[in-house]
């Protein structure tokens, strides 16, 4: 992994963006990394822009917020547009095609049909955030699937644990299958 | 103070600061006699008071741990001490302005939580120490330095207030009823939970003088004339009557 | 005179790395320090401290109570402290305002206690969920009369743990209220922190001895507890060594108020903590504290890579203020810069002793000061 990776997760309220950021950072701790995780919400609790930031470092993190994101995880088109200008030129954007129609920007784009997968499997879009985290673990130089699974296991309420682990596995599988078909 | 109670007073104390005819000296003796009757060791007791003439009843006089706090806050201080050391027998002593006006919120919440404290409210129906201003307990029409035309607002019925807030024991007696008052204080001390005794206490200096009740003896007579045991009350008494008795937990 | 004692005890959690928010770390720091009483009232952005204490304190044999307001909270804390417990509360600016009379009482009665202020953007209700750092002066001057509490400024989740623990130790050592001046940005930040196996804690000196006076003009008297049989007389009125009111005696008042100052100021070297970064050969120096110091260090490191002679003094202790260090430092600088999420509260203290030109940048929009802002200001000064 690089010395420091700055990751931004953004969408609208109710998509579990904040939880996803927290799980990602918790997985970073499992990995033995330094982590910093912060959030900001829109004015209303639901339905407005919502952002989580995770900084992963091999050494103590001096400034704990994201300045330029190496990875943007876009759960909504609005969030995608809002945070695109802060992307590192060589950065990667994971997006959910259910909500986001990406443009031509020169960044690496990874399509993750997280919402559709969640709808197909659980009948609700609620686990899309966890599916997305699964997909993230398959990117090079991020968090391992093992650490992420541990973080999800430790931080899920018991009644959601099974579904969350399944969603995570689905996200991982989405990416594995894609690699196979490339 | 009789010599019999000397052990309950700090040896350095040579007198009290109360005005002649003030009820607080008498209340002080009644509280100590209640403790003596119970045979309690003053080393097990903590007295907490706030600001105002009645706050001086325990501090610095009582020969025990005493915490003389801020105006209105005695009950909140006492709550912290009692929760940390439940073996302490904690009594809060304060005036009506202190405990029921600026400190009213703490009073009702401690009663609601049923914290194991005994609160003695010396009610003289006025702010004594600060110069005779109207209190939340001043009767309608009474004169004070801030109600020169007579108090337009009705007072709290403290016992009803405490009953509503959930106190474990609630009683009211005047210092002109020393035996009943002593028994009520003993009961309040021995019951577990939040117990409240309103001790109606004359303030000749600030209340009496402004309401043309001349001299200390006039205030005593006023109390004797206006106090009515709740057993004799019909419910149709005027607002100037002070109904006494045990209202909760008798 | 016997002194407070220092002991090694096991921390509140097994040794290891934890992923905590700043507020959670405050609670564990307090528990590790031996906090046995929490009295508080909910307020954003501090409430998570209270919630964690509500769950954790009873597990560890302590007492938690949600009081009816902040005035009652600080009062309960002081009562608890005199009953022998290490005690704390946590709140934000509006609550600190309400607590000021009680904090002054704690200063004057020499009651150890810890007050955590998770600062938000004020004045008044302000931006209740947004960051600010506007309570620094209130910590020093909020209560009437000349009070001198101690105030610490953490910059990370790790320090929310470490400095809360230290706050208790300082409170017990000096018998004084100690503020932890947190900020929303650190309170809600989550980071990995290390909880050591053992921590060093200070236990108060319970006497015997006069609880309110010492032979030395800067001493810390012993503090017995209620129930120890000492027949304590505690009052917020001017009092002699034993606690008796002496409200007409000018000398008693002078000796007491001066001792309360000297017991802190004469031990400032023991209390004050700070960190210097790249200051040895710096021409331009920043003085910063709290979250802002992280932005400042980021900017300084970046400019150092370009070979620019910049450095940072980070204040971990805000009160007592390190005037001597700042004076010496600014004597060697060509330019000093400050950055604050208030209208320049600490900058005013620096101004008192600053020996070089001082540029003050303030930001009161409810957001943190970006490293980019700091970098730009430094370049302006250097150009
Ligand atoms: S002012 Fe009134 S209450 Fe105060 S001491 Fe004098 S008589 Fe008593």
Secondary structure topology:
The complex is a heterotrimer of chains A (182), B (250) and C (383).
Chain A lengths: L3 E9 L4 H14 L3 E8 L7 E9 L11 E6 L2 H7 L3 E9 L12 E4 L2 H9 L5 H10 L7 H11 L2 H24 L1
Helix pairs in contact in A: 1-5, 3-4, 3-6, 4-6, 5-6
Chain B lengths: L22 H16 L6 E5 L15 E4 L5 H11 L4 E7 H7 L1 H10 L4 E6 L34 H8 L3 E6 L3 H13 L4 E6 L3 H7 L4 H12 E3 L12 E7 L2
Parallel strand pairs in B: 1-2, 1-3, 3-4, 4-6, 5-6, 7-8
Antiparallel strand pairs in B: 5-8
Helix pairs in contact in B: 1-6, 3-4, 7-8
Chain C lengths: L4 E6 L5 E6 H12 L1 E6 L6 H13 L3 E4 L3 H13 L3 E6 L1 H16 L4 E9 L5 E5 L4 H6 L8 E3 L4 H18 L2 E7 H4 L2 E6 L2 E6 L29 E3 L14 H16 L2 H4 L2 E4 L6 E6 H16 L4 E6 L1 E3 L3 H9 L3 E6 L4 H9 L4 E5 L8 H12 L1
Helix pairs in contact in C: 1-2, 1-6, 3-4, 10-13, 11-12
The structure holds iron/sulfur cluster (SF4).
Iron/sulfur cluster binds next to α7 of chain B.
Q: What does it look like?
A:
Chain A has helices at 17-30, 77-83, 114-122, 128-137, 145-155, 158-181, and strands at residues 4-12, 34-41, 49-57, 69-74, 87-95, 108-111. Chain A has 182 residues and is of the alpha/beta class. Chain A has one domain (4-181): 3-Layer(aba) Sandwich (Pyruvate-ferredoxin Oxidoreductase, domain 3). In chain A, helix 1 packs across helix 5 (145-155) and helix 3 crosses helix 6 (158-181). Chain A is globular and about 40 Å long. In chain A, 51% of the residues are buried. Chain B has a single domain (24-231, 238-248), classed as 3-Layer(aba) Sandwich (Rossmann fold). Chain B is 34% helix and 18% strand. Chain B has 8 helices and 8 strands. In chain B, helix 1 (23-38) packs across helix 6 (178-190) and helix 3 packs across helix 4 (104-113). Chain B is globular, with a radius of gyration of 17 Å. In chain C, strands 3, 4, 5, 6, 7, 8, 9 and 16 form an 8-stranded mixed beta sheet that branches. The model of chain C has no long low-confidence stretch (mean pLDDT 97). Chains A and C meet through helix 1 and strand 2 of A and strand 2, strand 10 and helix 10 of C. Strand 2 of chain B pairs parallel with strand 12 of chain C, so a sheet runs across the interface. The complex binds iron/sulfur cluster.
């Amino acid at each position: 992994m690089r010395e420091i990776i700055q990751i931004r997760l953004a969408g609208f309220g109710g998509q579990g963006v904040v939880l996803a950021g927290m799980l990602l950072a918790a997985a970073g701790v499992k990995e033995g990394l330094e982590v910093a995780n912060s959030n900001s919400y829109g004015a209303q609790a639901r339905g407005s822009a919502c952002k989580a930031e995770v900084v992963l470092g091999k050494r103590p993190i001096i400034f704990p917020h994201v300045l330029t994101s190496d990875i943007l995880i876009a759960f909504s088109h609005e969030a995608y547009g809002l945070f695109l200008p802060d992307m590192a030129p060589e950065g990667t954007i994971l997006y959910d095609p259910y909500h986001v129609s990406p443009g031509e920007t020169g960044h690496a784009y990874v399509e993750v049909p997280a919402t559709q997968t969640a709808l197909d499997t659980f009948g609700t879009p609620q686990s899309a955030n966890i599916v997305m985290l699964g997909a993230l673990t398959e990117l090079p130089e991020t968090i391992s699937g093992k650490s992420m699974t541990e973080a999800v296991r430790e931080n899920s309420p018991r009644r959601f644990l099974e579904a969350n682990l399944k969603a995570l596995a689905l996200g991982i599988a989405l990416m594995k299958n894609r690699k196979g078909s490339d | 103070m009789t010599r019999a109670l000397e052990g309950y007073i700090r040896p350095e104390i040579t007198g009290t600061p109360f005005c002649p005819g003030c009820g607080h000296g008498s209340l002080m003796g009644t509280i100590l006699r209640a403790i003596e009757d119970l045979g309690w060791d003053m080393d097990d007791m903590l007295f907490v008071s706030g600001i105002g003439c009645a706050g001086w009843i325990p501090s610095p006089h009582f020969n025990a741990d005493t915490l003389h706090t801020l105006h209105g806050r005695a009950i909140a201080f006492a709550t912290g001490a009692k929760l940390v050391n439940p073996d302490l027998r904690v009594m809060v002593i304060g005036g009506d302005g202190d405990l029921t006006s600026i400190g009213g919120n703490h009073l009702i919440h401690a009663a609601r939580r049923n914290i194991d404290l005994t609160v003695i409210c010396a009610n003289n129906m006025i702010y004594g120490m600060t110069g005779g201003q109207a209190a939340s307990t001043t009767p309608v029409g009474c004169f004070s330095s801030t109600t020169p035309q007579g108090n337009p607002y009705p007072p709290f019925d403290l016992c009803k207030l405490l009953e509503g807030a959930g106190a474990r024991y609630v009683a009211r007696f005047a210092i002109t009823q020393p035996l009943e008052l002593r028994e009520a204080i003993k009961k309040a001390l021995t019951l577990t939970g939040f117990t409240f005794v309103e001790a109606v206490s004359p303030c000749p200096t600030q209340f009496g003088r402004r309401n043309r009740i001349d001299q200390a003896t006039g205030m005593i007579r006023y109390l004797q004339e206006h106090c009515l045991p709740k057993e004799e009350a019909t419910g149709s008494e005027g607002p100037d009557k002070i109904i006494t008795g045990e209202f909760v937990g008798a | 005179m016997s002194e407070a004692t220092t002991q090694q005890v096991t921390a509140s959690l097994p040794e290891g790395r934890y992923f905590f928010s700043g507020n959670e770390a405050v609670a564990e720091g307090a528990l590790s320090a031996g906090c046995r009483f929490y009295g508080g009232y909910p307020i954003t952005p501090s409430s998570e401290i209270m919630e964690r204490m509500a769950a954790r304190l009873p597990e560890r044999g302590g007492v938690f109570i949600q009081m009816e307001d902040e005035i009652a909270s600080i009062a309960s804390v002081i009562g608890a402290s005199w009953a022998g417990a290490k005690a704390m509360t946590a709140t934000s600016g509006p609550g600190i305002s309400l607590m000021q009379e009680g904090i002054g009482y704690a200063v004057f009665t020499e009651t150890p206690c810890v007050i955590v202020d998770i600062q938000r953007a004020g004045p008044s209700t302000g931006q209740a969920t947004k960051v600010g750092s506007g309570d620094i002066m209130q910590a020093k001057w909020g209560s009437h009369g000349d009070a001198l509490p101690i105030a610490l400024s953490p910059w990370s989740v790790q320090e929310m743990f470490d400095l809360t623990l230290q706050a208790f130790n300082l409170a017990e050592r000096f018998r004084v209220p100690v503020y932890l001046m947190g900020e929303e940005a650190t309170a809600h930040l989550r980071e990995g922190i290390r909880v050591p196996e053992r921590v060093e804690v200070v236990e108060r000196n319970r006497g015997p001895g006069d609880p309110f006076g010492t032979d030395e003009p800067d001493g810390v008297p012993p503090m017995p507890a209620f129930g120890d049989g000492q027949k304590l007389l505690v009052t917020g009125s001017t009092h002699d060594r034993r606690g008796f009111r002496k409200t007409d005696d000018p000398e008693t008042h002078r000796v007491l108020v001066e001792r309360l100052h000297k017991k802190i100021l004469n031990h400032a070297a023991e209390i004050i903590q700070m960190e210097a970064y790249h200051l040895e050969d710096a021409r331009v120096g920043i003085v910063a504290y709290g979250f802002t110091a992280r932005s400042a260090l980021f900017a300084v490191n970046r400019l150092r890579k370009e070979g620019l002679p910049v450095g940072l003094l980070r204040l971990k202790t805000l009160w007592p203020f390190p005037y001597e260090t700042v004076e010496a430092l600014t004597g060697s600088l060509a330019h000093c810069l400050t950055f604050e999420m208030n209208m320049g509260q600490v900058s005013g203290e620096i101004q008192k002793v600053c020996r070089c030109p001082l540029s003050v940048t303030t930001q009161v929009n409810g957001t943190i000061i970006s490293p980019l802002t700091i970098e730009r200001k430094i370049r302006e000064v250097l150009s």
